[in-house]
Amino acid sequence: MVKLRTFGFPAVVLVGLLFSSCAVFHRRVIISAPPPAGAAEIKITQSIIPSDKCGRPLHRPMRPTFITIHSTDNKSRSADALHHALAMNKGLRSRHNRTGFLTWHFTVDDHSIYQSLPTNETGEHADYEGEGNRSSIGIEMCVNRGNNLDITIDRTAQLTARLMRQYDIPLSHVVPHMHWRMIRYSDGRDLGFKKCPRILLDGGGLGPKWSAFMAKVSSYAR
Fold this sequence. Notes:
With 222 residues, this protein is α/β, with parallel strands linked by helices. It has helices spanning 11-19, 81-90, 131-135, 149-167, 208-221, and strands at residues 29-32, 43-46, 66-71, 106-108, 113-115, 136-141, 174-176, 182-183, 190-192.
């Protein structure tokens, strides 16, 4: 029996990646920009999903007016930003949305940021056919064992502030995943509001942790 390393992803997902891989390469392009005042420079590694493949079966243009913050809920030690980017590059299957794949724009951990989609293209990360997908940049924070959450959150705040300035997005349009009501595309089932990003919630809702994150974003956006 061959034992597969799943890097924290369900085995059925990994099997799908192995037999329906849409890419056999991982493009690494380092992008850096002047940091916000008082912040260390952050670097973004591009690992863009190939066009016309997997999560990008057709060009779906987007003018971003929101930024949606997620956390992966995947605590496997190997479930860092790199391996989430690799999984999307090969195809993260989803049975219930229009494209058949999960996609988002950025994945952040305590030492790296990977970009998987252009910021002017629609992802599949928030609410199926709703405004969350159609108008927001999706950022996933890693929570894998060994990853420093405080640093991850800080780097996410810096990235969010940079995107706010780039696209003239107000702080009020930086929202948690649970901001968006999820109506499933495949069958119209109302899934309500997902309790995400879990690491920034208090008792399953918005509270001091989210407020502290927003204050951090605001300070970096000045």
